[in-house]
Amino acid sequence: MDPQAYNTALGIAGAVATLGLSAVGSGLGSGLAASSAIGAWKRCYAQGKPAPFLLLSFVGAPLTQTLYGMLLMFVMIGQANIGAPGLPLLVLGCFAGVAIGVSAWFQGRAGAAAADAQGETGQGLTNYLAALGIIETVAIFTMVFSLLAVLAVGKAAGVAAAPAP
User: Fold this and answer.
1) What is the pLDDT of residue 161?
2) Does domain 3-156 have CATH number 2.40.160.20?
3) What is the spatial distance between Cα 74 and Cα 164, in angstroms, rounded to a whole number?
């Protein structure tokens, strides 16, 4: 493999790692929140109460982190394809993916507690969503600062910013 193709492949591997690690966190987080929501619905049915559909908001909250990983991946692929150094993109992609994924995982853990509490009491929805939003902010900050870092890697290598593919 010629050095330029190897460099591009490393950058694309970093981009895919960003998406993959973000998605792993989303899967773990949504799975945790879904388990709790199902338990809350079961308790509602057992008590003859209506099962609150809004518990799905807690289940779905960690899914946005996969979108953040995807957006970052597209920009990273664009930079890799125009010659940005591959190794920094690989490292950046791994760290960004882990940070975004862990945010999703813990958002799911908090969503599980929120689903349980909302199902039990029927109260506190805005407080629970605010707490999930704060956890979401970690992923948003990670995405934005990683995008800036990706563009800085390209600029340091003398590569102009490229649009996402």
Assistant:
1) 62
2) no
3) 5
User: Could you give the C-alpha distances from 38 to 25, 29, 30, 41, in angstroms and in order?
Assistant: 20, 14, 12, 5
Q: How far apart are CA 156 and CA 150, in angstroms?
A: 10
DSSP of 140-165, one letter per residue? HHHHHHHHHHHHHHHHHTTPPP----
- pTM score above 0.85: yes
First to last CA, the chain: 23
The string of pLDDT tens digits covering residues 109-149 is 999 999 999 999 999 999 999 999 999 999 999 999 999 99
Q: Where are the domains of the chain?
A: 3-156
Q: Any residues with CB less than 8 A from the CB of 75 and at least 6 apart, and which?
A: 147, 150, 151, 164
**Mean pLDDT for the chain overall:** 94
